[in-house]
Write a structure and sequence with these properties.
The complex is a heterodimer. Chain A is α+β, with helices and mostly antiparallel strands. Chain A is built from four helices and nine strands. In chain A, the strands form two sheets. In chain A, strands 3, 4, 6, 8 and 9 form a five-stranded antiparallel β-sheet that branches. A four-stranded mixed β-sheet of chain A has the order 1-5-7-2. Chain A is elongated, with a radius of gyration of 16 Å. In chain B, 24% of the residues lie in helices and 30% in strands. Chain B contains two helices and five strands. In chain B, strands 2-1-5-3-4 form a five-stranded mixed β-sheet, covered by helices on one side. The longest helix of chain B is centred in the middle third of the chain and has 12 residues. Chain B is globular and about 35 Å long. Chains A and B meet through strand 4, helix 2, helix 3 and strand 8 of A and helix 1 of B.
Chain lengths: 145, 80
């Protein structure tokens, strides 16, 4: 299950929802709003999503993870809207019989999600400017180097 | 002429100044329509950095556009 959330959500509750007597491992990832990016002080940010396709692509990524790794369950949630520093922006949870598959699948899901899901991030900087991440030449050059 | 519904997100929504519009176009593909709109609205991103979705799913930007399609131009994503 992959979904978007316009409001803050409780990560431990999401992990408990994956509870399964067969599971010997539960690996979760939390992405938080950080106060710097590429050397610039960040005050807050916004996420915008193309909701229908974001959830569809997220579900595809989770289905791929289930095919690639011997896991029991996987779920992801991504925030939309305005977020403050320290807030939970994205959560991924995976259960498996053994930890290796749970770690690998969790990594796969977050990496693919960042690369493929139609969600955009605008950072607001301390100097009053803003930028859509990956959408400006400056940001692109930074990611290429 | 085809009538297509176009939705904009993020940097494209801001540069266009609206989130959605209906357009009449002769453009055969999403790539061709993007180039038309880029010239009209001064979008900063080149077509090489844009993906497209038609009727709720990803398509190649070189796929044919059909009358009645809903088209979304997808600038580079940045989740997480």
């Amino acid at each position: 299950m992959f979904k978007l959330s316009a409001t803050a959500f409780d990560a431990p509750a999401q992990a408990r929802a994956l509870a399964d007597d067969r599971a010997g491992a539960c690996v979760t990832f939390e992405g938080w709003v950080r106060n710097r990016n590429a050397g610039r002080p960040v005050l807050r940010l916004e996420y915008e999503a193309y909701a229908v396709l974001a959830e569809k692509e997220g579900e595809r990524i989770i289905a791929e993870a289930k095919e690639k790794f011997p896991i029991l369950a996987a779920a992801g949630i991504h925030r939309t809207g305005a977020l403050a520093l320290g807030e939970l922006a994205v959560w991924v949870g995976v259960t498996a019989e053994h930890r290796g598959a749970a770690f690998e699948a969790c990594r796969y899901i977050i990496d693919q999600s960042k690369a493929r899901i139609p969600i955009w991030k605008r950072e607001h900087y301390a100097d009053g400017t803003t930028a859509w991440i990956n959408c400006t030449e400056e940001a692109r050059l930074k990611t290429l180097t | 002429m085809k009538a297509v519904q176009v939705q904009y997100f993020a940097i494209l929504r801001e540069q266009r100044g609206l989130a959605e519009e209906k357009l009449e176009t002769e453009a055969p593909t999403p790539a061709a329509l993007y180039d038309e709109l880029r010239a009209r609205y001064a979008f900063t991103l080149p077509v090489e950095r844009i993906r497209a979705a038609v009727n709720g799913d990803f398509v190649a930007v070189s796929e044919p556009l059909q009358d009645g399609d809903t088209l979304v131009f997808i600038p580079p994503v940045a989740g997480g």
